Amino acid sequence: MITSLLIANRGEIACRIIATAKKMGIRTLAVYSDADSHARHVKLADEAINIGPAASSESYLRGDKIIAAAKQTGAEAIHPGYGFLSENEDFADLCQQQNIIFVGPPVASIASMGSKSAAKAIMQEAGVPLVPGYHGSEQDAETLKAKAEEVGFPLLLKAAYGGGGKGMRVVESLAEFDQALASAKREAKSSFGNDKVLFERFIRNPRHVEIQVFCDEHGNAVYLAERDCSVQRRHQKVLEEAPAPALTERTRQAMGEAAIKAAQAIDYVGAGTVEFLYDQSGEFFFMEMNTRLQVEHPVTEMITGQDLVEWQLLVASGQPLPLAQNDIQVNGHAFEARIYAEDPDNDFLPCTGTIRHLRTPEGEPGVRIDTGITEGDEISSFYDPMIAKLIVWDTDRDRALLKLQRALRQYRLTGLTTNIDFLHRLASHPEFVQMNLTTEFIQQHEQSLMPQLDIDVNQVATEAALYDIVSRQQAYSATAYFATDSPWHQANALRMNDADVHTVELQYQDQLHSITIEQRDAVFVTEAADSELQWQVSINDDQMTVVCNGRRYQRFVCADDQELTVFTEQGPVTLHRHKVTDTLVDEAAHGGLVAPMNGTIMEVLVSKGDSVEKDQPLVIMEAMKMEYTIRAGHAGEVTDVFYAAGDLVSDGDELIAMTEEA
């Protein structure tokens, strides 16, 4: 049995693996970059080794440094997690050469599935159903374009050695092919070190259903039910569930058997996932096999009661699978919501910043949170912007969905923009509730998923002001020095011969709200139309209990010296403390285009003096392993270009100056 394990990863998956390893009595060893020196996974491990600078290409993707760390710490085995080197056959081979157990499949299996085109050929020979497409080795642009015409449009263009939506493009017509191909190849090269692509007919409105398989060295193979991962943005999963809803038992069994056939075709050992497209007619087609543990594995664990990381470590130690196929039971329903630092209102652009306030529903029955983040941590541009995975379980889908909706409302985070509120709208959407799922779900329901919020800002501002006043008064009272009956030490707006009145000025977007509140002992009074509202408030941490004219309810509020965030039924509302020196700056006022986040310029598509049209691509930049195109907001002439390909830029840096066409 493995006794010491190095985890060649970071973030939530490193923490997840450490938890199981410790439960099994295995010594845990972490690696970390300079940016992660205070990260949660470093603190949880028994020992941790620094492996280099923040850039993953200089740390987490350096197999030689990870092997050196394993040798230094005496690690018997390396668990790669997911991403980084988890599906890198050279790294698995290097482990084998150094007599270190690689917690994953054999090198040959990784190689077989590492190339999507080779994988398709193997699956075709094994009799696994495939979507029509091109998976060949000829990669010159003219050949690819000719093959694309043969297969027909629309096409789904993919990085042959990739995953996670990177290097993936939907191409609607031949006219779009050249630009999409160039972009996909760049992103594939940057993310995976190989720009080979494949493509296949794009099936509209399919579902993404995948099977969790497990094999051991003794010839045993099982599948642990299926997961539905249809709800995606930018071809990356957002919301997953298990088991897949509205699937017949016959289809489930057929998919499971096809997945086992796929695994056995490459002599697989360990945890793997076989992904299928499931169309409206009930047919399913092989997409790819991921030769690692999936991000969404917790939903399978929740419905089967099995620890898949424990299974991995047992199999890597040479032991047989813990259960046979007939022993695997499915109980209840589970969801996983991926919480990201990203802006759904800005095409899901990743966001950076420091988490200033964090409260979660962890500890609630049937709720699990996998995370590598704690309050005060920074989300940087160096790594994937995932903050956490929120997983819930209950006895059936309806009850699990209600639990997910509630848990998302209980997940309170400030300091940067997240997708939490968007996830709540997804989980509450009538079509999602009714199981009308498709990989195009977000695009099809974009308008209802991105509504204009109807918020009573004055009400929210009043609640924020009350929290601010009462929390300051409680802070004064709790300080020993101020523990006195003196009115000068009570922050209660005392005025001699006049009413005790507080005035709090808060800014919401471009509107200033001046909130006037009279204090009468423990009662606060505000004016509303022709009536008077009386408020009583008590605060415990970020929870504010309010009684207003006989109505009792709760609000959660986070406050710092810059802003207050009130978590309402419609989502969080942030109000800024107003200062006389505050100014509002319109980034576009000077006619410039700015970097939306920290990143690297990949290509500048225009030059000084060029005339451009509205929405014309101007600059391509890369951030958080994804490629983004900066487009012209209006027609005009480029008057200056401030950066070139390869340059690093920071959030807000002006990239291009241009005039606006009259």
Summarize this entry quickly.
This protein is of the alpha+beta class. 26% of the residues lie in helices and 32% in strands.
CATH topology of the largest domain: D-amino Acid Aminotransferase, Chain A, domain 1
The proportion of strand residues reads 25-35%
Structural class: alpha+beta
Q: Note the overall shape.
A: globular
Order of strands in the sheet with most strands:
14-13-10-11-12-15-22-20
Q: Give the strand tally.
A: 39
State the helical fraction.
25-40%
> What is the CATH class designation of the largest domain?
Alpha Beta
The CATH homologous superfamily of the largest domain is named: ATP-grasp fold, B domain
Low-confidence stretches: 580-591
Largest sheet: 8 strands, antiparallel
- The count of domains is 5
CATH architecture descriptor text of the largest domain: 2-Layer Sandwich
- N- and C-termini, Cα separation: 74 Å
Name the descriptors:
single chain; 662 residues; alpha+beta; Rossmann fold; Dna Ligase, domain 1; D-amino Acid Aminotransferase, Chain A, domain 1; 8-stranded antiparallel sheet; 17 helices; globular
